[in-house]
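ARCHIVE CARD
SHELF: 3
SLOT: left
DATA:
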Amino acid sequence: MTNVLVCIKRVPDLGGEIRLTPDAMAVDDTSLGSTVSPHEDCAVELAIQTAKDTGGTATVLTLGSSDSVEQLRNALALGCTAAVLVEADGAAYGPADVAAAIADVVRAHEAAGTTYDLVLLGNDASDTGDFQVGIRLAYLLDRPVVAGVSTLSVEGDRVTARGGSPDGGTEVFDVALPAVLTVMEGGVEPRYPSIPGRMKAKKIAIEEVAPTRQPAGAGRVRLTLPEAQPSQVTVLGEGPDAAGAVVDLLEKLGVTR
């Protein structure tokens, strides 16, 4: 039986035009919806699969405002069995603060009799891209950590984690539980919540936790947006005269009959 804690973050839906706040410290979400990062979608899926395969539980946690309950309910609708909201101003929390808050919850639950064999997080959040929380959390909990995991499997008291390597191959790690893993998108296909799942999620009580310490902040100087790349169009010709150029282009692209 493997009990999994999966950590998510409410972030702006970056499908539209991205702007920064006037102080350039965050993404301006005024005209954007809210979601979770694609990495975390996959982390939730892996948590649910692992809990189901081992007869364990999958608990979802987030740090943020009460609005973040929307994302917790969505994870519950997918198959998580419990949820925890650390209610705080997420903008005031840096990666070290978030890791400390999660560690406090893990320790408090452990003292109350609930232990987590596996803690999953997204490799990074899509709004700030800090890449730090999972590593810092593992250090605070004194647990092994593997970053950039695509898939995982648990056998007894060990987890096998697989992820991509810089040379294009696959790296495989065999790690003792309890452990912390950060997840990259692409290894699994996230599921969509069903109507029965959403109805069931509404009935699950969400545990609300107050932070136990004051945040130090991110120490971030500012975010920057890369310059938009200009689009380029090549006109191959007009009418029948363009046929030869089209054939040449298809051959260049390797398209064959």
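SLOT: right
DATA:
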Amino acid sequence: MRLVKYLAHAGVASRRAAEELIAERRVVVDGEVVADPARNVGEDSRVEVDGRVLTGAEPRVVYAVNKPLGVVSTARDTHGRPTVLELVPAHGLRLYPVGRLDVDSSGLILLTNDGELAHRLTHPRYEVAKRYLARVGGGPVKEDAVRRLRDGVQLNDGLTAPAQVRRVGHGQLELTIHEGRNRQVRRMCEAVGHPVLALERVAFGPSRLNGLLPGSYRRCDDAEVECLHAL
């Protein structure tokens, strides 16, 4: 097994983050600092990260969390703000968030120790759908604004892919996108004249909030995890 995949399966980090750990020379295999993420690792290999010996693959878990406002979706925060990892008891597992939600946005975020799954859910080529409810300003949302969102909006980092959009109430839009650009939904709505006043993610692929209250979580069952892998 390649070293980067071994680290992901051991719950150390996502595959991308594991590559960074290796590049920073923080990984030792059989007493040797390794800088090659493709290095083969066997069942009998002794693998250490920052001096901690790994014991092999952890049991795979996925949690669905309803992130409240004011909570950051990173594993750590240099400003001391609460993180989404603090909402779920890890029981010794190394969990990390799948994707991001802005600190001023709420809703569904997944936590897992399955690095391969996290990679697939966030890599652009897999085009995993994410659905949001946005309360917007700028007056009534007219058909022209909806059409522009559906066709793709020109942002400073390029044209967005077409979004699925529908009006679900006065000043409220439901948007489904398949990209993961920084603050994308907010920037899209701003570009068509309707700044976002409140934003909630209600679905990530096949996973839904399903009545989760802000700050609460549930462990995804086997069927839901299989659906996530099928993406």
